[in-house]
Write a structure and sequence with these properties.
The protein is α/β, with parallel strands linked by helices and 297 residues long. 40% of the residues lie in helices and 14% in strands. The chain contains 13 helices and eleven strands. The strands form three sheets. It has a five-stranded parallel sheet, with helices on both faces. Helix 2 packs across helix 6 and helix 7 packs parallel to helix 12. The chain is elongated, with a radius of gyration of 24 Å.
């Protein structure tokens, strides 16, 4: 009779199961980089998160709300620390040292390498991957929907021409076209000025070239954009010669928005939309400044 009752219980559909049925057991997780930290915090139960990276508790490197990060345990990413937590899953990077990855496997830990998203589509796929691993695919879809809504809200009007834009980092470094920030720029009404002139990822755009062929906008992604304090950028970004670019606008962009996908895309899209809205370009009117002046008249 006991065997028959057990068999009968196993045949009850999930939706009709008794309230006494034990909850689904979902994996416990350690995340080792701030990009995956931010996504994990959105899709996993807090009890599933055994640790995030220490980077997420530093305002200079965090891709998530620091107050939220401070409520979660963290590690500095050593194998010993991770092993002591005995997680079911370790979210790492494709740049993780191979010897470290081998160590995780030998210790019986599931190490999941995740690359850096190079496009918005890559980020969507990564969100869905992490959400599926946590057992909360629906939360991944909800985050993707929020990102798509933010991009739609930040999109320029159909009659507005894209603004040629340089994202200028410390030393004059610029992002290439196959980068996440370049894709976000395209979705929010900008073009990658440096990439259009043959510069690739992490190339250096000399000040002389900037002066000889100025863009419509310089997004300064240096130290002062990160700290919110004046005078923090290096000499290239604050060079007095840049004042000669009277037809070029300048704005700050926090460098933390350049690399991580997930919820970071929402913040980046909103900030870029605000920058574009302060410029109000009109098609076919020459330089950005003349377009603004013509619009104001």
């Amino acid at each position: 009779m006991l065997a028959a009752a057990t068999l009968l219980t196993s045949c009850i559909p999930q939706s009709r199961a008794t309230p006494d049925q034990p909850p689904q057991v979902r994996p416990t997780i350690v995340s080792l980089n701030p990009c995956t930290d931010a996504i994990l915090a959105e899709v996993a139960d807090p009890a599933q998160i055994l640790a995030i990276s220490h980077y997420s508790k530093d305002p200079r490197s965090s891709s998530m709300d620091v107050k939220a990060a401070n409520h979660l345990p963290s590690t500095r990413g050593t194998v010993e620390e991770v092993l002591s937590l005995r997680p079911d899953l370790v979210l790492g990077s494709t740049f993780t040292d191979p010897a470290t990855v081998i160590a995780y496997h030998r210790l019986g830990l599931h190490f999941e390498p995740l690359g850096m998203a190079a496009t918005i589509a890559d980020s969507r796929a990564q969100i869905r991957q992490i959400a599926a691993l946590t057992g909360h695919a629906d939360r991944g879809e909800a985050l993707v929907a929020r990102i798509d809504a933010a991009l739609a809200a930040a999109a320029p009007p159909a009659n507005v021409q894209p603004i040629p834009t340089v994202v200028w980092q410390s030393g004059g470094m610029v992002p290439g076209d196959g980068t996440l920030i370049a894709d976000v720029l395209r979705h929010t009404g900008f073009t990658n000025f440096a990439a259009a002139r043959g510069f690739g990822q992490a190339d250096f755009l000399p000040l002389e070239k900037m002066l000889a062929d100025p863009p419509g906008l310089i997004l300064v992604a240096g130290q002062s954009a990160e700290t919110g304090q004046n005078g923090g950028d290096d000499r290239v970004l604050s060079h007095p010669a840049l004042k000669a670019l009277t037809t070029t606008h300048r704005a700050s962009l926090n460098p933390k928005l350049l690399y991580c996908g997930g919820p970071t895309i929402i913040t980046a899209a909103r900030q870029l939309a605000k920058v574009r809205q302060t410029i109000h370009p009109e098609p076919g009117r020459g330089t950005i400044r003349r377009m603004v002046e013509g619009h104001s008249r």
